[in-house]
Task: inverse folding
């Protein structure tokens, strides 16, 4: 047990970052991003990977060490009697269900969409996508603060294991490694695949969430919101399981906005005309494919990601 | 721009279901304790008291 504990501690502190970097470098070397990463994409992905690690981690540490003892005096370690298995279950559900809602609301509430848009703007999938987020979205990750509070009241030990397992699942769900493919290709593994794809996020179900269309029966950007667990999508009816990978990714109305606007909107805005991130840009962009051409006149069909224009 | 009514209604319905899911592991844990007779909080309390007593009884390193 001590060995496993040490493995998780090392993964938590530096191992996962190293793993993500190594796979990211391998993806680049193998040409995954060939012709897709221009200077703007490079800068955005590198900034999104590094800056939150410098800003958000100290913020969470401050929250845990300073704010929580002030807000909840006398509650430190009061629940440290909870057995490991129950503690892990409580943390896993509290953390991941909160993240499911945080994520889902950023898709379904029009006002919130632009804070999450950066995560969906890339027309490719890969390791870099896991950390590609607007800084405001990252800073207000609600599950981070909830889990910090649960650690404060005594669930720190099970949290270590849950957080590492969750990071591995979510990172691999974004990566180009289709680790789930053998489960669909081999008939004798289908029963395992059935359970797996309904329980946790797999590359197939999460890639579908990053697809740029829902018309092909594979893409489901209006659902598949689960991060570690896919079961939330099953329970709430927001999931689509196709066992296939989308042909194309991103958002149809992407205007390759400047990296600083994607990372820091609404502090910095885009100069691209008509962009969702521009000063007078629309709250939710319009899909160019949803324009109907009738007698040469363009009639706009009011459909975009999860919302409808009022 | 506003949210579709269908989406809003689904969010409200699912939010209520979520409250139940958040509480489920805690309810199941105490249900298990009541069935098995386990009282882990008492065991932990005794352990803490034992550590406290040992600390009080041990000679000061500064003497």
Result:
């Amino acid at each position: 047990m001590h060995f496993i504990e040490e493995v998780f501690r090392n993964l938590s502190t530096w191992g996962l970052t190293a793993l993500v970097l190594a796979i990211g470098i391998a993806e680049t070397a193998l040409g995954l991003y060939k012709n897709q990463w221009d200077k703007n994409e490079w800068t955005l992905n590198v900034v999104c990977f590094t800056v939150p690690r410098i800003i958000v981690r100290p913020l969470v540490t401050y929250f845990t060490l300073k704010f929580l003892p002030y807000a909840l005096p006398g509650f430190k370690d009061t629940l440290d009697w909870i057995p490991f298995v129950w503690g892990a279950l409580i943390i896993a559900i509290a953390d991941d269900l909160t993240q499911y809602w945080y994520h889902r609301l950023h898709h379904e509430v029009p006002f919130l969409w632009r804070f999450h848009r950066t995560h969906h703007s890339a027309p490719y999938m890969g390791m870099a996508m896991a950390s590609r987020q607007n800084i405001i979205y990252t800073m207000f990750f609600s599950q981070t603060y909830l889990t910090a509070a649960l650690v404060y009241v005594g669930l720190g030990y099970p949290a270590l294991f849950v957080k590492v397992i969750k990071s591995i699942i979510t990172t691999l769900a974004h990566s180009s490694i289709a680790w789930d493919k053998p489960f669909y290709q081999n008939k004798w593994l289908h029963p395992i695949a059935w359970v797996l794809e309904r329980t946790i996020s797999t590359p197939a179900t999460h890639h579908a969430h990053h697809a740029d269309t829902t018309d092909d029966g594979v893409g489901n950007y209006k659902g598949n919101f689960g991060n570690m667990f896919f079961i939330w999508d099953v329970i709430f009816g927001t999931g689509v399981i196709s066992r296939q990978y989308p042909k194309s990714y991103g958002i149809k109305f992407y205007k390759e906005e400047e990296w600083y606007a994607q990372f820091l909107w609404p502090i910095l805005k885009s100069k691209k005309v008509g962009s969702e991130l521009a000063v007078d840009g629309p709250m939710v962009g319009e899909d160019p494919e949803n324009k109907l051409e009738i007698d040469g006149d363009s009639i706009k069909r009011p459909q975009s990601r999860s919302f409808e224009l009022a | 721009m506003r949210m579709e009514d269908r989406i809003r209604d689904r969010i409200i319905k699912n939010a209520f279901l979520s409250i139940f899911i958040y509480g489920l592991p805690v309810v199941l844990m105490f249900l298990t304790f009541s069935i098995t007779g386990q009282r882990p909080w008492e065991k932990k309390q005794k352990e803490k008291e034992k550590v406290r007593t040992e600390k009080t009884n041990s000679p000061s390193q500064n003497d």
Remarks:
- Chain A touches chain B through 26 residues (CB under 8 Å).
